[in-house]
Amino acid sequence: MFRNLLSRLLDPPTPAPLSGQDGEVAIAALLVRLARADDHYGQAEKLRIDKVLARRRGLDAATAAERRAAAEMIEAEAPDTVRFTRIIKDRVELQDRHDVIAALWEVAYADGKRSADEEALVRLVAGLLGINDRDSALARQRALETMGIPDP
Fold first, then answer.
1. What is the mean pLDDT of residues 78-101?
2. Which single residue of 1, 34, 85, 152 could bond 128 by disulfide (Cβ 3.0 to 4.6 Å)?
């Protein structure tokens, strides 16, 4: 199943918008990649990813956790971040990409610590997704407000 999803993402017969479960698993895999960027993928980050996934599509906690688990396997097999992110950019609408950046910022701050590796990856991904620095900063502020964290 996961290899099949990865092949649909990487080698579609004709590039088509990602939608439904495929799109959410691809985005979740990007969230997992970010959470693993500082070599510490802890429970707080997993729970935040689950919360983001549940909120995005109205999932219950168990379904969100299952989707994250699938994303963990996809992320481990996914190509480099640049190529993987480009696939998402080409197949996800701009407004949703803004929401993805806000979700990435939430995951980056989920453990309550600032990580230079995670922040650098969010900035890289934002650029690759076609989100400018100003909009990324606004998404970061929204994420911090959502989490009730003062702007560091």
1. 86
2. 85
Distance CA(34)–CA(108), nearest Å, equals: 7
**What 8-state DSSP symbol labels residue 38?**
T
Write the DSSP assignment of 49-105 as a string of letters: HHHHHHHHHT--HHHHHHHHHHHHHHHHHS--HHHHHHHHHHHS-HHHHHHHHHHHH
CB 79 within 8 A of CB 10: yes
HSE, CB side, 13 Å, CA atoms: give it for residue 67: 29
Residue 51 has pLDDT above 60, yes or no: yes
- Residue 29 makes CB contacts below 8 A (sequence gap 6+) with 71, 72, 74, 75, 78, 84
- Per domain, the residue ranges of the chain are 2-9+21-147
SS3 for 152? coil
Tokens of 141: 């502020």
Stretch 89-114: mean pLDDT, rounded? 91
Q: Which CATH architecture has domain 2-9+21-147?
A: Orthogonal Bundle (1.10)
